[in-house]
């Protein structure tokens, strides 16, 4: 199997899938009786549906220091074995020939899928290979055109997967830091099942589910709301607001450490505007939020009273018309607030002074519809709201977004953020990223801040690094020979 283009890659049909996932579930019997989009098709009283089950899974193989691989023709590198799941009896591995398999392919890298262990006479599978570039994007994909027959010890693949000169050319970005990352997707034919039945049902046209859109409309229209959320912009984030109180006038300047500012227009859409910021400012804003995240009760009450007094004259707040039942169903924090005899429950009004109005709107939109359209641009602040109001899925989505945005400059900030909000998955990814890019991260300004202010996190980084290292080879010197002792000690001179 081969077919390389000028850039060393080939494309057939596409394959997609996740680990151990069936390609398609069991179809409804109605789908075998008629096509819902065409009411003119006949209805069958007796029917049979044959389902070919396909198990799809994927595997990534990373080869560090690829340019140091031996370059003799026919040399082989093999990955470790992998399978679709814990109970799967089929064991697979990937095999590459860095300088081709034979004379014909000596200018190419050859890549194959090998069946190492099989509990059947044979299996049939399709596969797709691709290379991940520096942005972790799939490139130069090649895919089998059909399901091939595999037996134990048999491999299928591409003798001319990609040209070596194209792969080694740094301008193509396929070997970031001399690291080759191969992504493989496999689709294995499991078995075939027949579903039969009888029916005399008439044809129905079923409208699509509009639950999310309906609840989104309910959030945008305050007609049936029974509660209001008054969100006051925190003091440190008010921009150019003149505050009058006690006969004195003070101007609250915008924080210089904020890397993004959010503006809300009349139609309610949230927009973000980038402002120049350095890695140090990122760390500074994060530390400021850390230090003010847990105020004492007396300070909180004082700040609440001040905000209530200033809210009318300042106008730096926003009111959301919401529904107690929805908020209580989605958040345990709101449920406790409305169930107990608290001021918020009796007044049907909740005053919030530690969350930005734009962040609160994004969180409420998620609570009503299950989606957050501005998640990627607001994840660093949205994760705090998700943690406070016990929205676990939103919190994990923020972790995922922050993980995808990891860089050498913000890795230390992200680790501190993960520690602050107990984001364990983000913490592990940030630690692994720091260890993989140790030289670049240690050269950043935020590294010194991490060492100085968060020694426990630094200890975690080094602990993870130590556990990933291979124990060094200790060369032992041969044991010294014992001196032979006389039967009696020698007499002194």
UniProtKB/TrEMBL annotation:
One of its GO terms (biological process) is protein catabolic process. Keywords: Nucleus, Ubl conjugation pathway. Residues 1-22, 252-308 are annotated as: Disordered. Pathway: Protein modification; protein ubiquitination. Pfam families: BTB (PF00651), MATH_2 (PF22486). Residues 56-186 form the MATH domain. Residues 307-370 form the BTB domain. Residues 273-297 have a biased composition (Polar residues). Its main location: nucleus. It is found in: Nucleus. GO terms for cellular component: nucleus. The keyword Nucleus applies. InterPro entries: BTB/POZ_dom, MATH/TRAF_dom, SKP1/BTB/POZ_sf, TRAF-like. Residues 252-262 have a biased composition (Low complexity). PANTHER family: SPECKLE-TYPE POZ PROTEIN. Belongs to the Tdpoz family. This is Uncharacterized protein. It comes from Pristionchus fissidentatus. The lineage of its organism: Eukaryota, Metazoa, Ecdysozoa, Nematoda, Chromadorea.
